[in-house]
Specification:
Blueprint lengths: L1 E7 L4 H13 L5 E7 L2 H8 L8 H18 L14 H9 L8 H12 L8 H11 L8 H16 L7 E4 L2 E4 L4 H8 L8 H4 L11
Parallel strand pairs: 1-2
Antiparallel strand pairs: 1-3, 3-4
Length: 211
């Protein structure tokens, strides 16, 4: 049975789409998924990138595309009243719901739906308080231990080569994005392609221009 580390941030609509589609993608495969909340902004800062919602034209396209993808795969999705927003409260809540900082699928789904299925302000303090009361976390979301666990997830993700969310890491291989699920499934089913030269091809393609 393979263990899959699932790096996610509730701010990402693609993470919600990937989360909802994951059970279908892994149907019939023996596996264990470990959910690891991470602050996407920390990854962007590390890699010197802007987020999709920080580029106006890309922001518009992102929202249109995720609404289309949601309809195509049958996933409920409503844009929140504000996006991007500060997801730290939700990330800390998720992390606090497990003593090891690895929330269950139930907890993650509750939080994803809080963001992407109501059309409301995802960071509203009253809504966050109500969600916290409902989930009854095992730890204080504002504790130093929870904050450290969240930072540790991000540090490990970056060390493993993760640069965005959603990302699934298995056997040291990174599968990024909701559209990588068929590729992840093929790997877990033992597709020989992953042992061939194409997986290593990027190492043999030099960067011709750097900015």
């Amino acid at each position: 049975m393979k263990t899959i580390d699932f790096y996610l941030d509730f701010i990402s609509p693609y993470a919600w789409l990937g989360f909802d589609a994951l059970p279908r993608a892994l149907e019939g495969i023996s596996h264990r998924v470990v959910h690891k909340p991470v602050l996407f902004a920390a990854m962007l800062k590390h890699h010197g990138q802007l987020g999709p919602a920080e580029i106006p034209a890309k922001r518009d396209w992102t929202y249109r595309q995720v609404l289309w993808l949601a309809r195509q795969q049958g996933t409920p999705l409503q844009l929140p009243t504000q996006h991007p927003f500060n997801p730290l409260g939700l990330l800390r809540l998720a992390t606090a719901c497990d003593v090891d900082g690895e929330p269950s699928r139930y907890v993650c789904e509750k939080i994803f739906r809080h963001v992407w299925c109501t059309g409301q302000d995802a960071a509203d303090p009253e809504r966050l308080a109500a969600l916290t009361a409902e989930l009854a976390p095992a730890q204080d979301p504002g504790s130093a231990q929870v904050k450290q666990a969240l930072q540790t997830h991000a540090q490990k993700a970056i060390a493993e080569g993760v640069f965005g969310v959603p990302s699934w890491v298995v056997d040291g291989r990174v599968f990024w994005g909701q559209d990588a699920l068929p590729m992840l499934r093929a790997y877990l089913l033992g597709d020989a392609w992953f042992d061939g030269p194409d997986w290593q091809a990027p190492a043999h393609c030099a960067a011709g221009v750097r900015r």
